[in-house]
Write a structure and sequence with these properties.
Blueprint: H1 7-16, H2 23-35, H3 42-53, H4 59-73, H5 90-110, H6 121-134, H7 149-174
Length: 179
């Protein structure tokens, strides 16, 4: 049986596959497609993964699609971003959150389904927020300590904002598969 899907498991699988993207970006790509209504067959998802990773994906990575679809469809809103745990440095968590957002926007855009005129005002705002977060950095100075309670709380709020934004996108567009 495979280990439960989490950031570490997915990161290990991506590294083993020699991937060009981070685990968070890969989750973002997958979720962006799902939220735009894209539904892949297993073979099509493997082909997309090969394009994104540059190599044949392992089973843990192929399982990401089903796990994300299940989480997004969960009536309990159980969707979670796969990010480094709270013990990781804040800078790494901010970088991975930005990577998720970049991947999400890329996956959403690659679906080819939605122009700006097809989006509700709420969804346009969600995508705008995610685009801003995709550009986030800690502005880290070498040796600076960003791991404090205020920054931790801010990051937690931003992660939750992204999580809810993804659920809004899925609720609005992703529940109606296009292909």
């Amino acid at each position: 049986m495979n280990a439960p899907l989490n950031y570490e498991t997915l990161s290990t699988a991506v590294v083993a596959a020699g991937g060009y993207v981070s685990a968070a970006e890969l989750q973002g790509l997958t979720c962006g497609h799902l939220c735009a209504g894209t539904r892949f067959s297993r073979d099509d998802y493997v082909a997309a993964l090969m394009e994104w990773l540059g190599r044949e994906p392992g089973d843990e990575i192929v399982g990401l699609y089903a796990a994300m679809l299940q989480q997004l469809e969960d009536v309990e809103m159980g969707f979670e971003l796969l990010l480094p745990d709270d013990d990781a440095p804040l800078q790494q968590r901010v970088t991975e959150l930005a990577s998720f957002c970049k991947g999400f926007l890329a996956g959403f855009g690659l679906s080819g389904r939605h122009g700006d005129d097809q989006l509700s005002d709420d969804l346009a705002e969600v995508l705008s927020d995610i685009a801003e977060i995709a550009q986030a950095s800690t502005g880290a100075d070498e040796g600076a300590d960003y791991d404090n309670d205020d920054n931790e709380a801010d990051l937690s709020v931003i992660v939750e904002h992204v999580r809810v934004g993804v659920l809004i996108a899925f609720s609005e567009l992703g529940r109606t598969p296009t292909h």
